[in-house]
Amino acid sequence: MYIFTSPGASGSSGWNTGDTLTFLAAVSYALNIIFLDRYSRQYDPGILTGIQFAVMAVSGALYVLFFEHPFLHITGSFLFSLLYLTIFGSVAAIFIMNRYQRGTTPVRAVIIYALEPVLAVFSGWLFLGERIGKNGIIGGVIIIGGVVLSEVFGMYLDAKRNVYTL
Question: 5-40: string of b/e by CB count within 10 Å (b at 16+)?
C-alpha cells in the first residue's frame, strides 16, 4: 500500500484516511478468511451466508444512521440493479465462497480471491483502455507474489514435516 500511495511523487498526498481504511478492510478480509476456514467445515454454507448478511445489514444500517444522510430515489433501474447485485454480486458469490473454501487452505483461497482485482484490471485495460502505472504494477506484483510465496513456503514446510495436503 505504501507503494500505491506514491509517497514523495509529485502531487501525491502520501498516506491518508482512505489508505488507513483500506488497510483495516484488508485486515478484516483476512480475518474473514481465517474464520471462514474454521467455521465452513462445521456449519452449513447457507447458514453462514445468512449470518454474514444479517450482521452486515445491521452494521450498515447503524453506520448510515450515524454517519450518512440517506436518501432514496426509487426507479425501475434502481430496483433491477439492487436485485441483480444483491443476488449475484453478493449472496451467490459469498455462498460459493462459504461452500467451497472448506475444501482448500486459507492461503489457496486468498490466491483465488486475489484473481478478482487482477481480472478487473485486465478487463479495464481490455474493454475500457484503462492504464495502470508503474507503482500499481509493482504493488500488485508484491501483493500477489507475497501470497504465492507464503503458499510455496507452506508447502515446503509441510514436505519437510512429511505432511501432504491436496
Answer: bbeeeeeeeeeeeeeeeeeeeeeeeeeebeebbebb
